[in-house]
Amino acid sequence: MIAIIRPDVEQQKIDSLCDWLRSRGLGVHVAVGEFQTIVGLIGDTTALDIGLLEGLDIVERVQRISEPFKSANRKFHPDDTVIEVGGVKLGGGNFAMIAGPCSVENRNQILQVARSVKESGAGFLRGGAFKPRTSPYDFQGLAAEGIDLLLEAKRETGMPIVTEIMSAHHLPLFEHVDVIQVGARNIQNFELLKELGHIDKPILLKRGIAGTLKELLMSAEYVMAGGNEKIILCERGIRSYETATRNTLDLSAVPVLHELSHLPVVVDPSHATGVARLVRPMALAAAAAGADGLMIEVHNDPRNALCDGAQSLTPEEFADVARRVREIRSIIHD
Ligand code: PEP
Ligand code: MN
Fold this sequence. Notes:
CATH superfamily of the largest domain: Aldolase class I
Strand order of the largest sheet: 7-8-9-10-11-12-13-14
Order of helices and strands: EHEEHEEEEHEHEEHEHEHEHHEH
CATH architecture of the largest domain: Alpha-Beta Barrel
Bound molecules: phosphoenolpyruvate, manganese (II) ion
Distance between the termini: 37 Å
């Protein structure tokens, strides 16, 4: 439920409303918008006298939120959330590219890729240190060493880093990581999501392989319910009956998520297609659909990559995609 406050009400009156709601055992979330303040009520509102709330002179209107996700809901928070890390912004009209290899493989690889994607305009460096591989016999990532190498690349280039977590036990290793990714396989690992709710770092949540958009938003809600509201949503393709591509990119996820939620939405055309030559058209389409960012796999030597080489762009191909994405964005923002 939300209480929409009349314009120009003094802060002190809003504070005392919030205190009263808390004394009724409810959680309170205040969203201060450009024109209006919205007080969100979290928890069991059945014991609350709605008539009393509606009758308050500072309250313009009370509205029930029927969707099960509250904190992630745009009704709760009409303005777009902007995530800012190390001077790079995502959301609310700010667009950023997250680029880098599927996995961190060695020092030379990650430094070379980091320098090149930065040069091409990427805002964030990505790279997996803990890899969720289908086969236990495949390369599992360099773990702590991989994170150290990403941090070295960050020190050298100044780019914030994004890397995937697979277990809350590894959290101490992520202390200097800028954005923690939860991958498609772990997106309903609710215990992990709860732990991430207690830290103060942006979390990038990838849609599950067979996950609905509502389920993705409920995963965001798990993190937000713990107090961490810095969430980036990521559409990375869903499993369908089509076999020509690794997954099926659901581009309508971008406008639908923007309607339902205030959280920034990025698209990963690499995992969505699994095919390097399809990354460019899908990246451009995602930018045209209004994505707030793109996550793209880039490798200095895709043919010899230890993971996801077939979908990885060379640094030169990434430079071309980045340039064309900027062109598309300049058209849609005209
Ligand atoms: C990745 O980003 O490297 C990854 C494993 O992605 P997903 O969880 O979307 O498969
Ligand atoms: Mn990958």
